[in-house]
Specification:
Helix content is 36%, strand content 22%. It contains twelve helices and 18 strands. It has a five-stranded parallel sheet, sandwiched between helices. It has a five-stranded mixed β-barrel with strand order 14-15-16-18-17. Strands 6-9-10 form a three-stranded parallel sheet. Helix 5 (150-162) packs parallel to helix 7. The protein is globular, with a radius of gyration of 22 Å. The mean pLDDT is 94.
């Protein structure tokens, strides 16, 4: 009988898809997939995008090494970004690890071993990145953009549709770059149309990470005109000051971003905009930071995440002068999140008394936890649902909103 394998998947949903593909391949070869505490072999899929992620990965590896010393594990395999980036160094410092594996083929196995709840899945349509942002180490780890074959994408969608998935989340480092390596031009609009034709029973299709410079009028109209595509635009701008944007090598300007935001809201009424902002980029002045604050206050993003700048070796920004102290980075982060908390509270108040469609994620006691189309799994808000109906994960239900929290809603349905 083949050994039992457990996996610990760290980092982003893109990593999670890789973990599902690894387990799918091993499951097909006859290995038993179990929880980590029952495993003979431990696989850890690591992240090294920023310093905090590296620390989390190293700590997890050391925890597994202790289990191996105690005889509770036979082997440890370290996979993913950390292994790709620091393999030589890790071999010397972590002799307890049996193998370090970097990247594997993007084209997925016919049957993934899903690690998400059964009702929602992630579909990774590209790997690597076509952008060269000065702060980002992804191109060093993942390489140039590599788009998944169309036939492979559509086979996965067909399988998810057949399995009764409620929500399909389309992901990649930058999905607006999809197709550039295959066709010489972005082709997200074309593959999205084909995906919708195959997703006959999938209730929601969500697009995650849309680079501002490649959001087209055609793409916005596809999102607007198909009821199944969530009216949710994940639009990371990172900053708004033109000097900082140039240093970041974002290849866009403040004027372009403002024009795009206006156009998105004009084309897709009621859309939820999500963005991310980096604080403390090298040489960022108080005045330039306050420009970001004023921008956020003016635009009032429905969803927003902020991160302190992480100085990563191998990136262009690593050698920039005037690195900002951590204390100032954190203060600026806190100021943004305090502002966003107030904005979110105001946004949520608009839902009181309205009926909205909610996807149930889980039961909690006598009530349920769910999400609106404006909330991506694991990163956005929740809806606390009180219902006399018997609901289960994956069900869609109409909920009347009765109360709001800072980021979440409360309702009856």
């Amino acid at each position: 009988m083949k050994e039992k394998i457990g996996i610990l998947s760290l980092g982003c949903p893109r990593n999670l898809v890789d973990s599902e593909n690894i387990l799918g391949r091993l499951h097909l070869k006859g290995y038993r997939i179990v929880d980590m505490d029952k495993a003979d072999i431990a696989i850890i899929n690591t992240c090294s995008f920023i310093e905090e992620a590296k620390r989390e990965s190293i700590e997890a590896i050391l925890d597994l090494a202790e289990l191996k010393k105690e005889g509770k594990l036979k082997k440890i395999i370290v996979y993913g970004c950390l292994a790709q980036r620091y393999q030589g160094q890790l071999r010397k410092e972590l002799p307890e690890v049996d193998a370090f594996i970097g990247r594997v083929s993007l084209n997925h196995t016919p049957k993934r071993f899903l690690l998400t709840p059964k009702h929602f899945v992630y579909l990774k349509i590209c790997e690597g990145c076509v952008n060269n942002c000065s702060f980002c180490v992804i191109p060093k780890i993942k390489g140039k953009l590599s788009s998944l074959d169309e036939s492979c994408i559509l086979k996965e969608v067909e399988a998810f549709d057949k399995d009764g998935v409620s929500e399909l989340n389309i992901i990649g480092q930058d999905i607006t770059g999809y197709g550039i390596d295959l066709y010489g031009r972005p082709a997200l609009d074309k593959i999205l149309k084909k995906i919708t034709r195959k997703a006959n029973h999938i209730g929601w299709i969500r697009l995650l990470y849309l680079n501002p410079k490649r959001i087209t009028e055609e793409l916005l109209k596809i999102i607007r005109d198909d009821d199944r595509i969530c009216k949710y635009i994940d639009l990371p701008v990172q900053h708004i000051n033109n000097r900082i944007l140039k240093l970041m090598n974002r290849d866009t300007a403040k004027e372009d971003i403002l024009r795009l935001i206006d156009r998105v809201r004009e084309v897709i009424p009621g859309v939820a905009l999500r963005t991310s902002i980096i604080t403390g980029f090298p040489s960022e002045t108080d005045k330039e930071f306050k420009e970001s604050l004023h921008f956020i206050e003016k635009v009032k993003f429905e969803r927003l995440g902020a991160f302190t700048y992480s100085r990563e070796e191998g990136t262009k920004a690593y050698n920039l002068k005037q690195q900002i102290p951590e204390k100032i980075k954190t203060e600026r982060l806190n100021a943004i999140m305090s502002l966003q908390q107030n904005i979110s509270r105001e946004v949520n108040k608009q839902f009181i008394g309205k009926k909205i469609k909610v996807l149930i994620d889980e039961q909690e006691g006598s009530s349920y936890l769910g999400r609106t189309q404006y909330d991506a799994p694991e990163v956005d808000g929740l809806v606390y649902v009180n219902s006399k109906k018997k609901l289960k994960p994956g069900d869609f239900t109409e909920v009347r909103i009765t109360d709001t929290l800072e980021y979440d809603l409360v309702g009856e349905g």
